[in-house]
What does this fold into?
Amino acid sequence: MFKNKITLQLQESDLTLTERLTEAETDTATGQLLQLLKLEVDPDPDFVRQLELRLRAMNRPQSPSQPLLEARTKMQLALRGNKLRLASAVVVVVSLIMVGLVASFTFFQPSSVRAAEIMTRAAQLSSGSDSFGLQSYHGKLSESGKPGPNELYREAVAEVWFLAPNSRRIETRTTDTGGKSVQYLSGTNGSSAWSYNPDQNLYTQLDPGAGKATSNFLLGATDLTTLLQTANRYYNVALVGSEVIAGRPAYIIEMTPKQGASGSAPLYTSSHMKFWIDQQNYLELGVEYRDAQNKLLAKMIYTQLELNPTLDTTLFQLDPPKGAKIEDERPPSLATLDISWQEAANQVTYKLFRPSFIPAGLTAALPQFKQPRPGVLNANYAGTQPPGNIYNLNELIIMEGPTGTWQLPKGKGEAITVGRYAGAYLKEGDLQHIFLEVDGTAIAVTGDAAITKDQLIQVVASLQPAVVTGSFITSGK
Amino acid sequence: MIENKWQFQFEISELPATELKSAIDNNAERDETLAARGDMDDFIQLYQHHLKPVHNYLYARLGNRQDAEDVTAIVFERAWTSLKNYKPNGSFRGWLFTIVHRALADYYRQHKSARNQLVQVEALAETLFDPSAGPEEMALLSERLRQVREAITSLNQEQREVVYLRFVADLHYKEVAQVTGKRESAVKMIAYRALEEIRRRCSDVQK
It folds into this structure.
């Protein structure tokens, strides 16, 4: 439409590259195809609003606790079947947590037996296998750092209450760029967990199992033993001195990457880490992370600490404040799942199939019909992240639609038979898929590297009509 | 509240060439002014102006809304934190898509996900589904989509990148050059060859 027809009549040799390009762009057939490339897919209005809020929130320095909170929230989102939204701050902080976890268990170094012993005891306190006389504490924590090159320097003060075995409350205060004080709250009593953002009057119900509260939480808490071998390969640990922190005598432990380890080690192995550990009860009194250039990434250290105070259990609960927007990030109950599958089955014209076997460790999210394919069911099952890998979730996705919804790419895949149904198995990169059609329903089952081919076949073999009443097994063991 | 950029671009494309250039320049000037001021309210305006092309480009590349939203969020968060480094020696849109380009590369590197590639074409088809269209229109659309699918998959990675930036993100060739780090003439040559390939394949199909 921008081109004069006279140009088109010129000999090709007379045309400049720009003109030839314009001609190619405006060629009718090509032009129509190019129009198809312009996907007029409006961004989801909720997403637009949420992202704007997130961006506006970046206008003020966040407390280091807030990214930790966000990280936990994102983990729970992942459990619901969504992918992690890899906000850079979250990535950095989660990475630091992982590194901290890895580093904290590097205790088989012959040159650092004493340090290893201290860290082992800190780990015992963290896991709850030994309390070392510590039943509760209440303290104030100073937080500071610049977690990444594109992050703002952050300062905050957090007040922490802990009551064994796994009740914890954290209130973080910081200031925005305008000097206004802002606050974030989170807590758990082991059976329920929540967070509250007074600024936004946003109350979130969290999964208490996803971020189990322990006394030693600065380094994070998860299945630490699985990290041991990785940590052992990449870090040296050393006891370098002692210091009084918040009135408590503390060991100073330093973690440094082994020579030659950086580059091949997972995630920020260049970071140097320092830990202050209480000499009597092995509580983490402080942690510090520095990058390879010795720049401070994050430091959290207690400034006040009271050991074994009497704490009221109501401290660890918070009902949604009046008028608060409530978000529920908890995984659905079995009953809710049953109802959702039934409802989903009623919404489609094809038969819906639900698996009775799911590999152990995966948690089901509610089945959903998502844009841009509103007629296709998505059932997501997610597990915890493999150690040292913040990107690859342990994840399984089942998608169902009417016959013809998917076609196996030509020349790809391996023919397989599952029960009386013929299908195809396809492995691409870290992912593997099984495609098949069952009674007019096209089914695609995708698993990541953490799921074996046999498990994927087992999932497919266990598919049953979703409308059958009765209890389904949703977590195959 | 949010300016419909597509509609805006359609409107300016109807203008005479001189006015068209002026409108584009004004658009770029507006972006530069907002970026230079650099406060959050200005940035939110930029976000509102550019969200849709960024989102749609990522949607086209990644093939599903969830991933497109994830990377879109990363792009605008990085853009905000890097805004102080923006220098108006190229267009803001080009600068922004440089961030898009890197975020996408990071995404591919981190996920190495073949699943997205697998569903991309399907998502494309579903995206273009118009519920109001009749069976004949749907069949025609389906055929054309098949052509798009084949044509795009026949391109090499470099060509595909340029085609997406030019025709989905609607960048000017100068901006595509800015994003890809190539000379404008090189980008035009890549685009020309890509379009010729698309045209050739389409005409083969019609025969």
User: Anything to note?
Assistant: The mean pLDDT of chain A is 71. Chain A touches chain B through 60 residues (CB under 8 Å).
